[in-house]
Structure formats: C-alpha cells, structure tokens
Specification:
heterodimer, A: alpha/beta, Rossmann fold, seven-stranded mixed beta sheet, five-stranded mixed beta sheet, 19% strand, globular, B: alpha/beta, eight-stranded mixed beta sheet, two-stranded antiparallel sheet, 39% helix
Amino acid sequence: MSQNIKFVQGNEACVAGALYAGLQFFAGYPITPSSEVAELLAARLPTQGGKFIQMEDELSSICAIIGASLTGHKVMTATSGPGFSLMQEALGYAIMAEIPCVIVNVQRGGPSTGIPTQVSQGDVMQARWGVHGDHSMVALTASNHQDVFLMTVEAFNIAETYRTPVVLLFDEVIGHMREKLVVPQEGEVQLVGRLHTSVKGGVDYHPYLPREDGRLPMSDFGGVHRYNVTGLYHDMWGFPSSDPKVVHGLIRHLVDKIENRANLLAHYKEYFLEDADRVLVSYGAPARSALHVVKNRRARGERLGLLELQTLWPFPTDIVREKCARAKAVVVVEMNMGQMLQEVKKAVEKPEQVFLANRIDGVFITPTDIQNILRLIQGKGV
Amino acid sequence: MAVKDYIRERFFPHMWCPGCGHGIVLNSLLRAVEQLGMSKNEIVMVSGIGCSSRIGGYVDFHTLHTLHGRALAFATGVKLSRPELNVVVPMGDGDALAIGGNHFIHACRRNIGMTAIVMNNRIYGMTGGQFSPMSGLGISASTAPYSNIDRAFDVSEMARAAGATFVARTTVYHAQQATEFIKKAFLHEGFAVVEILSQCPTHFGRRNRQGGAADMMEWFKENTVPVGSKKKLENPALIERGIFVQKEEPEYCSEYAKIVDKAMRG
C-alpha cells in the first residue's frame, strides 16, 4: 500500500492519472509550466510499450495525437496558453471528426507570451470558444493532486465515451505545487475503453451513424473497415457533404451530445452549502484559498459555503442555480477578470448578487483577498 | 485486382476540373499499389486541404482528410502508433510547402517511414488561382496580378537538405515513371518524397497563357530531362526528372522500438 503514496507535483499527478487511464501515445512541445508532463512521459511511456514523440510545435503535437487515436490508442498532449492557442485549429478538427483525445493546458498568465512562470486562469473562455464555429466542449479542472489524478482519468473516460476531445484546464500552482497523491489500486477507479464496432468486415460500416444511445462505435485504422475521416461536414460514411440536412444533423449531434448531458458530466464538490447564506463558487487552485476562508468563517459561526466546480464546460448551469438558490450573495473566486463570473450570473436567479473575488497580477489569490471582498459586499470595508 | 478495385466508386464523379493533372497522379498511385500487391487494409492515406488532398476521398484505403498543411503531422501519429501500416501523404504545393513547410522539413529530418507525394501544380487551385511557393518569378496569379515577385522553392532540393532519404521527381506526362517512383518510395524504409509536376489548366494555364491540359502536359515533356542529362548543362532552365536521393538511414519508428526495448530493460 505504501508504495502507492507519492509526494509529487500536480503535473506528475496528471501523468499518473493518464497512465492509470491507459495512455499509450503522447506528442508534445516544451512549454512552461507544462513541460514536466512531457518529460515524465518521455521516460515512462516506453517502459510500458507506449510511444512518446516531441514534435516541431504545438500544431503538430495535437495533430499527431489525433492520428494515433485513430489507430486505436488512448492519447494526450500537454501545453500552456500560447501552445493552446496554436492547438485550437486541430481541437476543432477533433470535435468535428469525433476523435477521442485529451489536451492538458496548465494555465499561465496571458495574453501572448504573458507571464510563463506565474499562475492564471485566463484560458477558461478560450477553452470554451477558442475553436471557430458553433461547437460544444468538455473541460475539467481540479484543486488538489488527488483530484488532478481522478479528473485526468475522467477526461479519458469522457473522451472515449462521447468520442470527443476533453480539455484538462489546470493552472501553474496546481502544476508545480507538491503534495500527497495516493495512486488508486488497479480496478479501484472505473476506466472506459474504446467502443469498437461489431460490424463484420465486408459489411457496410457507418463510422458516423450514432447508435440509439448516441455513441458511435469506432473501427481502428488498419482494421477491416476502411472509411474516410474529415474536418468537412460529412455523411454517415465520413464523406464530405454540403446537403443542408446532413449539415444540420451533424452540428446538432455534435452540440447535443455534450450539452444535453451537462448534468451527467458535471463534477463538483460542495462544502457547508446546506445552510449557507453566502456561497463562494471557485475552481482550480483558487478553490483552496476559498475553502480556507469557508472553514475559518464557519469556525466563527458565519454561514458561508463553497461550491467547487470541477467540470467547467459544459457549464453546470442547473447545479449552480440550485446550489446558489438560497444565497443572499454569491462570490466567484477565480484568477482572471471574471470569465466564470459571467456564467454564474447567467445561471442564478439574482445576478446582481453575484460578485467577483479575483487576482490578475500573477500572484496566487489568498484567503485575505477573498475575505476582503466578503467584507466589502457586507459594507464593512476591508 | 484491377485498379478500380482500389477506388470508392460510390463517391465518383470526382470534384477535379476537366484537364486537371491530379487524376493522373491518382492513377499512377493506384497502379503502384496494385503492382506491389499491397493490402488495402494496411494503407492509410493522410491528406491536408486543397484540390490534391481530396484524393483521399476516392481511394478505398483508410483515409484521413485533415487540416491545411498538417497532413504530415497527423500521419506521424498514425505511423508511430502503428508502424506496420503503410502511410502515404498526398499534398499540394501550397499545402506541403507554405502552411505545411515546417512539418515537411521536420518529417524529412525525422526520417519517419512514409511516402509524401507533392502534387505540384504551382498554384492554389481550390481558392481561385493565388500564387504558391512553387509559382516562381514572373507568374501571373490572382494575388499576383502584376506578375509574381515571390521566389520559388525547389521541393526536391529542400527535401534532400532537410534529410529525406528518398527523393524523386517526375511529371504527370511521365505517368509510368510516376508509378515506378511511387513503388520505390513505398518500398523505401524512411521518409520518401515524390514530387509530381501536375497541371492546373483552370488557373495556372489560363492565367499564364499555357494553353489547355494537353499543351501543359506537352510542356512537361519538352521542359524536363532525365537527371544527369547533358541537355541540362546546355540549358539550365530544364527541370530534372529522376531519383535524386536514395539512401539507408535509421528510420524513426525502428529507432523508437529500440528506445522501448532499452526502457523496458530498465
């Protein structure tokens, strides 16, 4: 048992989760603060017969993992803001062609080269809308290394179940901080494998015809079914089509398969929400400071609670509305200029009672920063 | 099997213009596959964006129609994850060398086992006749209405310099030679580049008063010579056809297999 307890960086917890989930192929390009993911996988993947390749840039890294996914492998890449910007093109391709893959973005300050070694959560909206065209997106995050591990496994499970890219939106603090990780035993966490078609060779296979449950069984490249994969709108064979019915049907399918399952895909944690009259909503590393404030204030008899989001996209609107229904004030704690704040405002009944506690200077948000905002909205000054 | 056993008749007629040279490349490619007796299940065709890249839709292989310029990057993932597959990457000149230029030189450098076929018609056809990195000086294009001042690459020279271990060039006029070169490329252990000059009568030919498809193919016949020909010394403007590079170097996937062995031994 003791051998499964580790003291690691968040980036290593992500690697451990990916390997536990069955990662077989990784392609990446060095970038702070995600580089440890690539370094660790360069060492570990070949020990298990997996493949690691350092590509010429982030454009090619995500393209390579999509290619490897089509041959039947679980795949991942890891990057940070500038690289994530470059990956948007192929991220859209993975959505359109419905290729399971996991993209890790360990966020740093932006825009542009920004502040590579400091923390930020500035890519939340980019994760949702960085790809051109209407689409949906799955993005998960975590505030501690145990959850980094579990959300990484979940990212692979969602990617395989729904044939979709999944973004893991971590941040620099989580990526580089060291803390305890207990790696679960084999079989302790459920894993979802690739769903393969049962259609026999020689029989017409429709790679893009969803089953009744919405899933699309795949056939690996190199197998008995030879079909076309494209980023163009396509019919059930994967052949390009501009037939309005085909186009409408496909965009609806791509969006609905995610958005209609927003509640099913919603991972979150709640602390002291039962009787809370003020609710903090946070995610990623800032949720640690938020939880500290909540515990501290509870000890003094204040009815403060925390809703920690782990699924950022699709946004868990119903859950946020329900959990914040009794709150006189909601404070969104995040390290950007209010990207999730807007989503929370849209979700709750009284958006005028939603406030922002943030930092955008590259310094990690402290419990005092949050406490100051709580005092301000109560009219107590700081 | 006949050549037609390698196509998806369901998706014909194809979308290329009358007189386009790309159909000849398709034919040469399928003859190479047929003559080598390759299994359709073991061939993955990865293409990018452009007229050339639509070739993937028509062949009965595993086909991956990707993003503009990025075909070699997708293909690298396919090949490294399953090295036993035969990977062929047809590309246009803009696709391979402008937006995909970086991926092209790095695929050459890595020497990963796949065949890149550059279907070079010196123009962006699908978007309406803009100049490409292969158009060359003095050419008329929709984005070079006063004549092109952008200098051209030599694909084969660049592939050689970047480290490709098989490099050959021919034209669609020399369709049988194209088949021979593609066969050699398929059999080559490493990154193989076959440049095939192809005609775009719709855009390049019309704008540059080169006549119809037959006239443009005639131009290929008159203006190319076998590599090492004396005529090239007399007239440096002639374009050489032939195999420029064919050498054995460590192939990337084979080398990675050694890394796996080393890592597994600890």
